[in-house]
Design a protein that fits this description.
Length: 155
C-alpha cells in the first residue's frame, strides 16, 4: 500500500490539528508558554472576542492541555487561571518550530518580538529533528517514512 492509498483518519498531524489547529488556539498556547494565565490578560493581549476565547479555553481544558486553578483578588469573586499541563508543555517545540519558520520566512524588517536564548550560553534556541538514537540534526533527505501499524486502505 502506498501513501495515497492509505486512509488519513488516524494521522497524528490531522488528529493534532483537530485539537490545536485553529489560529486563536495556537496564540493562546503561545501566550500561556510565555506566562499568561488569566482570561482578561489573554483577551487583552491576543485581541479576540470573549466568546471565542471562552470556547478555545474550554476546549484546551477539555483536551487536558490547560488546567484551571482558582484565584481571588481582594474584593473580587473567585476566578480561574489557566496553566499548561504536561501535555500542553509538550506543544512547546511545535510553537518554537512555527516561530523559527516565521522568523525565516514571514518576519518584517523590525525583527522578532521575542528573542529566545539558551540560559547557560546565550545562544539562540532552534528546533531540530533528530533520530531517537540522538544522531545529529537530520534533513528530509536523511529520513525514510514508512506506513505505520495504524495504516489501512482508504475507503
Amino acid at each position: 500500500m502506498e501513501w495515497l492509498e492509505a486512509s488519513t483518519e488516524n494521522c497524528p498531524v490531522q488528529r493534532t490539528l483537530d485539537v490545536v489547529g485553529e489560529k486563536w488556539t495556537l496564540l493562546i498556547l503561545r501566550d500561556a508558554v510565555n506566562g499568561v494565565r488569566r482570561f482578561d490578560d489573554f483577551h487583552r493581549h491576543i485581541g479576540l472576542s470573549e466568546a471565542v476565547l471562552s470556547d478555545r479555553l474550554r476546549k484546551l481544558v477539555s483536551a487536558d492541555i490547560l488546567k484551571t486553578a482558582p484565584y481571588q483578588e481582594a474584593g473580587s469573586r473567585s476566578r480561574n487561571e489557566y496553566r499548561l499541563t504536561r501535555k500542553g508543555w509538550d506543544l512547546w517545540p511545535v510553537l518554537m518550530a512555527l516561530s523559527q519558520w516565521g522568523e525565516a520566512y514571514a518576519l518584517g524588517a523590525e525583527g522578532p518580538v521575542l528573542d529566545v536564548r539558551h540560559t547557560d550560553c546565550d545562544a539562540p534556541v532552534r528546533v531540530v529533528v533528530e533520530c531517537s538514537a540522538e544522531h545529529a540534526t537530520l534533513t528530509p533527505r536523511e529520513i525514510t517514512a514508512r506506513l505505520g501499524s495504524g495504516a489501512h486502505p482508504r475507503s
